[in-house]
Amino acid sequence: LPKEYEFDRDYWQFSKVSIEAYARKIGAHYLFEESGAPFDPHFSLFNMFLSDRCNEWDAICFIDCDVLATVNSRNVFQNASKTKVNIIQSNTGPLHTEPFEKIAEWRNSNELNTGVVVFPRAIYDQVRLFSMFIEEYYKTDSWVHGGFDQEIIWDFAKQHGFENLEPQFNYMITYYRPENRFNQSLIHYHYNMKHKLPHDFHKPMILK
């Protein structure tokens, strides 16, 4: 992340506890991926597709380490397409602020946020082919569409299409009303909101 978004990395420890509890609640296998090999953690969502591990599951949901689940959270797999990648456009949903400006002109962008992504089995082979070009993105990434993994998913969605996740499964409190966050399923404390995550974790509305 850019320097202005860097915070104490301890927030991921709280996220790990909450998302592991979420996996238990919905009956999913939980795996904490931290290596980011062969490059860095920004590309860790593709690790499953660089090996045969993805074939162990009917669908894979990648969740960033700055996300908390709520006690009333719904099953993301039951609300996802079985034929397309499931991801949210950052400029859709219950926006309450001026669109967040990044390097790209955000207002006119269909930027896809990769805080929560669901890959159904039907597209594993297609994702694997894209994963083979990570080195190219790693060397040339320009943050045009959010950087790193978002660049790859952006291009993948343009070629293969995508299903827009309901905002409740990637409730970005930078863009959406933060006072409504505990009524959602998965709260995303991205960018300059990470400092709220450790405090919220201790509230009874958070799954842990």
Give a structural overview.
The protein has helices at 11-26, 124-131, 134-140, 149-160, 196-201; strands at residues 59-63, 67-69, 85-89, 112-120, 162-164, 171-172, 186-188. By secondary structure, it is α/β, with parallel strands linked by helices.
Mean pLDDT: 83
Distance between the termini: 27 Å
Indicate the low-confidence ranges by residue numbers: 1-7, 100-108
- Overall shape: it is globular
- Which structural class do you get from the secondary structure elements? alpha/beta
Give the SSE layout.
Elements lengths: L10 H16 L32 E5 L3 E3 L15 E5 L22 E9 L3 H8 L2 H7 L8 H12 L1 E3 L6 E2 L13 E3 L7 H6 L7
Parallel strand pairs: 3-5, 6-7
Antiparallel strand pairs: 1-4, 2-7, 3-4
Keywords:
208 residues, alpha/beta, four-stranded mixed β-sheet, three-stranded mixed β-sheet, globular, disordered N terminus
Can you summarize this structure?
Helix content is 24%, strand content 14%. The protein is α/β, with parallel strands linked by helices.
